[in-house]
């Protein structure tokens, strides 16, 4: 399965992946998902937003039991890594194969999910597919989102209402680790216990366009200067407070080499160990930006585009799976996941993660060793077996 996925959406120049939702590479991955499900005799269900689930067992046989869901996502960030998302989907199919080889007889229906637009790389909302699937974001709001080319989501898909997750009682997601926790502990797999709160904030900084050569420095209203100082302030505050702050995307108008810009838009990604810590970090960065703007003769407007509060995964499920896997490490994650969305609406959720020897993610350097991935498949199969047979009760 992994060999089939490796070339899809891969850049020949960087080795990174461009698998943005509703573009050719991501649509090819969805076709692969359907084929992988069909060859295993699974029933594929989609919703109006592009989310997919492949179900094991006829629905009528499990009418009185809560469904178990596993899976992840297939899309990537711009120039991203191979493992973030697809590893969880491939591992889910492999775990199902292993369960069948072991003769597992499920008492609960099992689904393998592929959520759409988890990264928010096209329409700017992380975990958009899962948010829409559970009703955490409404279609009325989502359909007005536009991508970098000005394309409106409502013109890409019809939307509507999703019933795909009705009856789901448990969700388990496997993911490549996006840090160095398992490296430091010398462990191939682990369990996440919580997701740090995080958010995306758009900084619109307006100034005055002017000539780069003839305009004296003291006569300028340069929004790029305000932006640069704000980015430095975000870095400083995150380091001082022990949190995370990143300006990773910027849009400049008119974007000319020999012109002072008239407008700069920058997107802040902020993450912290608690909701209070996130609020304090974001508030201080905005305060600094406002002060710089007053000094520079510019103006700044901050818009919170998406904010996710702290998510603690179901403790009983986490502990049961950790024991079943042999008391593996339990660590928090600073990355957002579809698992956090499902847990936030009351679906008991757990996350397994597989060691990434590079410690790098959202990058072509992201990796995982085959032996660790196979250990992850076994751990996932053990976890799902306990859930679908009733040996683990949530």
UniProtKB/TrEMBL annotation:
Taxonomy, superkingdom: Bacteria
Annotated keywords: Hydrolase, Metal-binding, Zinc
Gene Ontology MF terms in the entry: hydrolase activity, acting on carbon-nitrogen (but not peptide) bonds, in linear amidines; metal ion binding
Binding annotation for allantoate: 200, 258, 271
Cofactor remark from the record: Binds 2 Zn(2+) ions per subunit.
Gene3D superfamilies per the UniProt record, alphabetical: 3.30.70.360, Zn peptidases
Residues annotated to bind Zn(2+) 1: 73, 84, 175
Family membership: Belongs to the peptidase M20 family.
UniProt binding sites for Zn(2+) 2: 84, 119, 362
Organism placement in taxonomy: Bacteria, Bacillati, Actinomycetota, Actinomycetes, Propionibacteriales
Any Pfam family hit: Peptidase_M20
Organism of derivation: Nocardioides turkmenicus
Cofactors named for this entry: Zn(2+)
Protein name stated in the entry: Allantoate amidohydrolase
